[in-house]
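Budget justification aside, the reviewers requested a transparent look at the raw inputs and outputs of the sequence design task funded under Objective 1. We therefore reproduce one unedited record. The lines immediately below are the structure tokens for a 105-residue chain.
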């Protein structure tokens, strides 16, 4: 299994776009990959559509909310600690991927 970790700080529009694309991947719905979004104490609320995606357990998307911003490495470590996958792929929120990209990875 592959775990994709996305560390966020005040960049919800990019996170929503990236998670939306990754969540549609066949590998995520089949349980061969998961997406873990780590929020590093962003200001403002977490977008409702991200909460909805996370609340549907079948989506393979999880959210880790940190109560402080320990920096990028701390966010990656928080994602790694909850990862179910044997492999870890760290993506910045502004990465743009195609619908079939995850399968190629």
């Amino acid at each position: 299994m592959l775990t994709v970790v996305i560390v966020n700080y005040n960049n919800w529009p990019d996170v929503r776009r990236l998670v939306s694309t990754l969540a549609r991947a066949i590998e995520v719905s089949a349980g061969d990959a998961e997406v873990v979004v780590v929020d590093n104490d962003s200001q403002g609320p977490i977008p409702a559509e991200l909460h909805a995606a996370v609340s549907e357990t079948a989506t393979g998307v999880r959210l880790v909310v940190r109560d402080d911003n320990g920096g990028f490495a701390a966010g990656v470590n928080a994602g790694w600690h909850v990862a179910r996958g044997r492999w870890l792929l760290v993506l910045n929120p502004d990465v743009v991927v195609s619908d079939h990209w995850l399968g190629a990875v």
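The longest strand covers residues 33-40. The CA atoms of residues 12 and 47 lie 7 Å apart. Computational costs for records of this kind are itemized in the attached budget.
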